Every structure is written in structure tokens, then in C-alpha cells.
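> forwarded from #structure-qc
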């Protein structure tokens, strides 16, 4: 009898909010199978945790490609911002280890002209990080190399500061 009661009551206790909180736990534990299950059960893909981050932001920040794929398959918002104004594209562009994640995000047509709290676009973030592959991908995806940040610098200015001729070439010739 208790077993039957538990089977009836348990689903009622598992609200979308509980699923969402469990989604963040599953992401932090790098448990892609649990993420997939929670998404199937209706977890809120745009829920925000106590830091104001969505599941996609959390997965990108922790470099979890499999979970990013699951979230993108459910049409997670690729233009969502964290508390500093950074989008998932900016976060991935800043780290060379996340070039595959950046490629996945770009395939979902993010707004590449969006700026963070420092006035930086994803292209400027990538150039500051010295991430030549990300710079090339973003330029070839339509990022504007002439946009300036709050310091009145363009991506090419950061590439020049690093003496990164390859990146300067990409930024001045339009990639390819």
C-alpha cells in the first residue's frame, strides 16, 4: 500500500521547478543521461539558478559538449546573458578548448553583435583571448570586425597587441 501511494504522490511532488533545479545538479555533476531524462520530463530549459545562469550557460562554462548538444536540440536560447552580459558564444570564444562548443552554438544563429558589460562582442572576446580558430569562425559567420568595445578598441587592435599576424590577417581580410 505504501509503495502504491509513493508511486502516486512522487510524480506530483516533481514539479517543473524541481526538475529545473535537478537539471543544474545534473549539469554540475556532468551527468548527460540525467540531463536528457530531465529534459524529457519537462525541465525548464530557460530556468535560472541562484547566479542567474541558464542550463546552457552552465554547460558552456563547464565545457560540457554533450550537454550543450542536448540543450541546443531543445532550442535553448543561445543569446541569453550571464550577470556580466556574456552570452554562451562569448564564453566559448574565450577558451580554445571550447572551439567545438562554439561551432555548435554558431550553427544556431546567435546574435554576434551583442555586447557584454565591457562593450565586447564575441569576436573581441576571442581576439583578446588569442583564440585564432574562434576569430576565424566568427568572422566567417558574419561577426563585424569593425565593432569597438568601451575602450574604443576593435578585435584587430587586440590581435596587434599580441603580435598575432594570423589573427590580424583574418580580421583584415574577412577570414576564409
Amino acid at each position: 500500500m505504501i509503495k502504491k501511494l509513493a508511486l502516486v504522490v512522487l510524480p506530483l511532488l516533481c514539479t517543473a521547478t524541481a526538475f529545473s533545479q535537478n537539471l543544474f545538479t545534473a549539469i554540475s555533476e556532468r551527468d548527460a543521461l540525467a540531463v536528457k531524462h530531465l529534459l524529457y520530463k519537462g525541465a525548464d530549459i530557460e530556468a535560472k539558478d541562484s547566479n542567474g545562469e541558464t542550463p546552457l550557460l552552465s554547460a558552456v562554462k563547464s565545457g560540457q559538449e554533450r550537454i550543450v548538444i542536448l540543450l541546443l536540440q531543445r532550442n535553448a536560447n543561445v543569446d541569453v546573458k550571464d550577470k556580466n552580459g556574456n552570452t554562451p558564444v562569448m564564453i566559448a570564444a574565450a577558451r580554445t578548448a571550447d572551439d567545438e562548443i562554439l561551432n555548435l552554438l554558431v550553427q544556431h544563429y546567435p546574435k554576434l553583435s551583442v555586447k557584454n558589460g565591457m562593450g565586447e562582442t564575441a569576436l573581441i572576446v576571442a581576439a583578446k583571448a588569442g583564440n585564432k580558430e574562434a576569430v576565424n569562425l566568427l568572422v566567417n559567420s558574419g561577426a563585424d570586425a569593425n565593432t569597438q568595445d568601451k575602450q574604443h578598441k576593435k578585435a584587430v587592435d587586440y590581435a596587434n597587441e599580441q603580435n598575432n599576424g594570423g589573427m590580424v590577417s583574418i580580421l583584415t581580410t574577412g577570414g576564409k
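QC bot note: The chain is about 55% helix and 0% strand. The CA atoms of residues 17 and 89 lie 26 Å apart.
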